[in-house]
Amino acid sequence: MKLAPATSLRALHVLTFFSHTCLLEPLPPTVLFPSLNTTLKMLHYKYQTRATQVNRTITAHMETPNHKTETKMEEKDAIKIESEFRSEFLQMLRKRRAPQVPLTVEIAKPAAVFWYENNPNEEETMKSCPKKDIENFKDLLKEENLYLNIEEGDQGKLPLLILSLKESDKQIKRPAVVFLHGSNKCKEYLRPLLEAFASRGYIAISVDSRYHGERAKSATTYREALISAWKTGDTMPFIYDTVWDLIKLADYLTQREDIDPSRIGITGISLGGMHAWFAAAADTRYAVVAPLIGVQGFRWAIDNDKWHARVDSIKHVFEVARGDLGKSEIDKDVVEKVWDRIAPGLASHFDSPYSIPPIAPRPLLILNGAEDPRCHLAGLETLRLKVSQMYAEFQCSDNFKFIAEPEIGHQITKLQVKELSDWFDNFLKPKQLVPEL
């Protein structure tokens, strides 16, 4: 494929992640989280609906001085916890990085070859996404195929598919949403969602996660990468390496002239839901978050012997580990050792009870099936209570919603797709910022 010359990105952007992520320098606390006064204004006002703003204003007049002081201390503690998590998580992400290169953009053609498993039921569900009825929609649809150069090596090029409506007014900055596919899928697979959101005025972006789509050489590339990670410990193909890509993607999106850098959302399905949750936990530039059938408790699953369905989804690496460890069968010891090797901390200090709360107070919608064997509902009860408390401490409980759809296993549904669309429309579409006082 012949590509246009790479174009260098501008040096300036919102949270100065660009220089730090490229140079692999430690991020100081001021970069990981702005100063307290600035942060509180941003957290209180940036993502609230008007109804929430009115309710909070009324409540503020009723609070006693002591209650206000107590609330402010709770917010300070929450901000400190979030900052410490991001610092530790970002340091872990850097440990197995290939040499970094300056972030550049290449114009590409639509992918000619990509690997994915078809799921007709899921495709039909995605097509149910609310779509604005526009005459000659296909003619008005703008498609961009790009590569972001991130680091050296065959996985250092991030493929992007971006859909949006052609706009006559080039000065208007629009909201954007990043969509992430599940295991053995690709960015093109998500096209029904991209088109639906583009019709409603969003810039819709999807990417190929590591060892998927254009980044796969065969149908077994992802499987081979997981086994290699177990054997060598050189990469983190399960979740973490793609999270690094999404941090770099935020570098790019916040510099685009057609995107409002304060209105970027992120979502994903299954593995993509995990990517979305961790990317949002690591990078505050993802302003609204909605993982589908991805949030789970890895530690809880091990402790309660409920790890089988998750392990079966990528069983080959566990079978290889079982043999290497001299075991006759996969047991919880094998499971824990594999997670520690291919995704350090996933079953301990980076598990969902620690990585989901740092998303607060940004709007967070968690969508799961109540009978999902990979994302056991019982394993999320402590998390749900903890996150609810976190949003209460930030005085924005309406910014968190947890849906466990009854009688639904590990699958997305039309209800979930509708809830997802409403969530982004509620928090990203309206420009309802309150001026700083």
Automatic annotation (TrEMBL):
Tell me the ranges covered by the AB hydrolase-1 domain, including all copies. Answer: 177-382
- Endpoints of the signal sequence: 1-24
Cite the entry's keywords alphabetically.
Answer: Signal
Tell me where on the tree of life, at the top rank, the source sits: Eukaryota
Q: What SUPFAM superfamilies is this protein classified in?
A: alpha/beta-Hydrolases
Residue spans crossing the bilayer: none
| Protein known as | AB hydrolase-1 domain-containing protein
Recorded source organism is: Pisum sativum
> What is the taxonomic lineage of the source species?
Eukaryota, Viridiplantae, Streptophyta, Embryophyta, Tracheophyta
